[in-house]
């Protein structure tokens, strides 16, 4: 897929664990893992908003487009 | 009435149908086999079905009619079994699975087979009736073809449902 999820990088920069983020955002760790691994088919705006709020970043910091 | 209760009632009904068809198929196999050796048995094969005239005239045609009837009843039993399987594997909270789609598709193919065999049997019996034999059987081939077509459309809709559910499951 040409959309890359940089959630791992942002989490490392913020020194936050996945479990912690999942709790703040209100999604399961399994769903967060789906998002991190790039298996997700879609991301809800509400989830994206909660992630950006928790990590204090912009959607563009998490999502990146690359040409195949 | 709740869906769960309705499904339980349907499951019970299909168990009754399945056992009924199995008993019918078993009785037909036994009685046709018995009548092949003992022509008097053809007077009452199953619930008053009288094929004595046909048995007396030609054992080959008698066995052919019997084989077609047993095949159709067996296929009906198999359809009832597949419906029971759907109620066992199906989860009403998560209904769209490949297994259920496969079973629905199988029901459609079995109903189509049943319809084709019923039409062949009907044509065969019509020919025998024209020859002067009395065959008190109704086959209902067109109804099975109609059923097969409807179930085939449902299986296609179900496939689309699986795609949507998968997408929904992978939406974070």
Describe the structure in your own words.
The complex is a heterodimer of chains A (68) and B (172). Chain A is mainly alpha-helical and 68 residues long. Helices cover 57% and strands 9% of the residues of chain A. Chain A has a two-stranded antiparallel sheet. In chain A, α2 (18-25) crosses α3 (29-36). Chain A starts with a strand and ends with a strand. Chain B is mainly α and 172 residues long. Chain B has one domain. In chain B, 78% of the residues lie in helices and 0% in strands. Chain B contains 5 helices and no strands. The longest helix of chain B is centred in the first third of the chain and has 35 residues, at 3-37. The two termini of chain B are 34 Å apart. At the A-B interface, α3 of A face loops of B.
- Strand elements of chain B, count: 0
Q: Which whole number gives the mean pLDDT of chain B?
A: 91
The quaternary organization reads as: heterodimer
Largest sheet of chain A: 2 strands, antiparallel
Strand order of the largest sheet of chain A: 1-2
Q: What does the radius of gyration of chain B come to? A: 20 Å
Q: Per DSSP, what share of the residues of chain B sits in E-state strands of 2 or more residues?
A: under 5%
Query: Structural class, from secondary structure content of chain A?
Result: mainly alpha
Q: Quote the beta fraction of chain A.
A: 5-15%
**Total domain count of chain B:** 1
Low-confidence segments of chain B, ≥5 residues, pLDDT <50?
none
Please, what is the average pLDDT of chain A? 91
Distance between the termini of chain A: 8 Å
Number of strands of chain A: 2
């Amino acid at each position: 897929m040409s959309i890359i999820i940089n959630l791992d990088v942002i989490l490392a920069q913020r020194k936050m664990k996945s479990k912690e983020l999942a709790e703040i955002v209100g999604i399961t760790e399994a769903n967060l893992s789906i998002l991190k691994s790039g298996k997700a088919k879609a991301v809800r705006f509400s989830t994206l908003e909660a992630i950006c709020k928790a990590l204090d970043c912009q959607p563009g910091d998490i999502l990146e487009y690359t040409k195949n | 009435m709740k869906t769960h209760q309705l499904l339980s009632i349907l499951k019970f009904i299909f168990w009754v149908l399945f056992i009924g068809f199995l008993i019918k198929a078993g009785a037909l196999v036994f009685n046709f086999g018995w009548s092949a050796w003992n022509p008097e048995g053809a007077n009452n094969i199953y619930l008053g079905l009288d094929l004595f005239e046909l048995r007396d005239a030609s054992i080959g045609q008698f066995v052919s009619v019997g084989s077609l009837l047993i095949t159709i009843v067996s296929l009906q039993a198999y359809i009832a079994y597949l419906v029971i399987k759907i109620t066992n594997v199906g989860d009403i909270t998560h209904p769209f699975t490949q297994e259920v789609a496969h079973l629905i598709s199988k029901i459609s193919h079995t109903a189509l087979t049943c319809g084709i065999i019923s039409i062949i049997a009907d044509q065969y019996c019509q020919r025998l009736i024209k020859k002067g034999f009395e065959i008190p059987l109704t086959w209902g081939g067109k109804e099975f073809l109609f059923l097969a077509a409807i179930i085939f459309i449902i299986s296609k809709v179900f496939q689309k449902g699986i795609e949507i559910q998968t997408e929904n499951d992978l939406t974070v």
